[in-house]
Design brief:
6 helices, mainly alpha, globular, Serine Threonine Protein Phosphatase 5, Tetratricopeptide repeat
Length: 103
């Protein structure tokens, strides 16, 4: 596990705003129970590239887990807007289902 984290961190030194790498590292942090660092990376993705729609579902679930339901709802809504804009109905439907389960 730590080997993957070390590799991702090394890649991020070269490309710190790479949303795919940030997302992958955040998922590794979640596996370790490190929601704080994962959240920081997910939030960075939302700011860096709002069109990187893979982040919204995972960030929303993380926010639900830490008891921030209202913020999770806002993230799901933002993600649904971005997914619709991108024409990605699969991701839109996943976000809609998570949103519906929460409200």
């Amino acid at each position: 596990m730590n080997n993957r984290i070390e590799k991702l961190q090394a890649f991020l030194k070269e490309s710190p705003n790479d949303c795919f790498l940030n997302h992958a590292l955040a998922l590794e942090y979640i596996k370790l129970g490190n929601d704080t660092d994962a959240r920081e990376l997910f939030e960075k993705n939302v700011v860096t590239d709002p069109g990187y729609i893979a982040t919204y579902y995972h960030l929303g679930k993380l926010l639900e887990r830490v008891g921030e339901q209202q913020l999770a709802i806002a993230i799901y809504e933002q993600g649904m807007q971005q997914a619709k804009k991108a024409g990605d109905m699969h991701t839109y439907n996943e976000l809609q289902a998570a949103y519906d389960d929460l409200i």
